[in-house]
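Escalated from tier 1: calcium ion holo job.
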Amino acid sequence: MNTKLSILIIEDEKNICDFIATALINQNYKVYKSYSGKDGLSQITSRCPEILLLDLGLPDMDGMDIIRQVRAWSSMPIIVISARTQENDKVAALDLGADDYITKPFGTSELLARIRTAVRHISHMNGSGPAESHIFSSKGLVIDFDKRRITVNGEEIHLTQVEYKIVSLLANNSGKVITYDTLISHVWGPYADDNNRILRVNMANIRRKMEKNPAQPQYIFTEIGIGYRMVDADV
Ligand code: CA
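Tier 2 regenerated the structure:
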């Protein structure tokens, strides 16, 4: 990487903000810090960071309003930093257009994994990534989007149309959590019944076909109360 990728952290807890900043600086990212919502918003416009790490609970503003304002004009990746008690907030943040979230307390490796996923999505948006290959591959799972063909360790897996729609949406967003509502409206349309039962039934069938041990999935993970996440693609 010739130019450092820049990340703005908006987090009022200084020790968390500094912990994140140190971890990112060590990985050679350019880091800006902000301890309040209003200052954060002004830094977004003045510094034009490429990725935003955003605490939802800020003293002067609701983090949701920041997501709304940023999404009005920018598709920059937004990773929400949230407390474990804010399950509903996480879903709302994702549905407002946040890309991902990380739950406090978190370690460096989890943080860096989220950042790497965001970086990959930036390269896809800029057309400089491997997005053109139309093949997803991870740990023996291969999805060929052109042929609509899925294999696990070379063996073909037969999915229904609905199951394929679910798997391909997750694979196209690998590493990112996709909420139940997003999946349901993608597959069954925006006016579908928003109860998750039919989605859960389909996911159980998908796992039975794809996973060696459906109780301990290695490809599609459940984010309880939020949605599903496909394992990162092999690089
Ligand atoms: Ca806070």
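The pocket of calcium ion is lined by residues 12-13, 55, 57-58 (CB under 6 Å).
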